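Recall that a protein's primary structure is simply its ordered list of amino acids. Everything else, from secondary elements to tertiary packing, is in principle encoded there. The following example makes that idea concrete.
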Amino acid sequence: MRTRPSILIFSSVLALILGVQLLRGEVAADQQKPASCIPSKKDPNRHEQFLKDKAAQLEKGPIQVVFEGDSITDGWRGGGKKVWKEYYSKYNTLNLGIGGDRTEHVLWRVQHGELDGLDPKVVVMMIGTNNIGSSVSDIVAGITCDVKAIHEKLPNTKILLLGVFPRSPKPTDNARPKIKEVNEAISKLDGTDNVKYLDFGDKFLDPDGTLPKSIMPDALHPNEKGYYIWAKAMQPTLDELMK
């Protein structure tokens, strides 16, 4: 029995219509999300290098800890290099931080293979400072989307979610209250999706709330002294999560 051309044409048109409707549905769903939750590609060359770095490190043994984040995490390769070796080389730790990354960039990288093939005990994540121009709700949504994406990729891994570090020299500067609101909101993720929340931002500050240049010269990125503060403040919690 031959299929009539009219039936074939009708079927093709129907499939096209349905496909367009589905696409529109996906676009509409994305339009309802804040930009912080829509994966965005950035620094593809570094992403590809990370995939190579991961493969090379896996040849040495299991990667037990992964760091995920922006330039502050990326800085473990610079000002924090000595501290990194002292505290994290024993875990064959993988650093996936990229300067300038926002929550949506981390989301894209997680969805494009950077965590594939891994089974670390802990992922340490601190992200959100580059989203500071967005609303508190958008920043919180982006961090939450990143947490969920990591948990979906690594359901057995514990996520050590760090509060966003303080930035700007004075406690009265605009960024400070926004960061406080963000951290109060993301602290509620503690206990969900294998998340442990930790905030030690006050350890970078003077008693009056000033962010000293001796720790963060540009009032954003730690120097070696700042990375020592980070490592020492985080280690007891990391020790617990590594058990």
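Strands lie at 65-69, 94-97, 122-126, 158-162, 195-198. The chain is about 45% helix and 10% strand.
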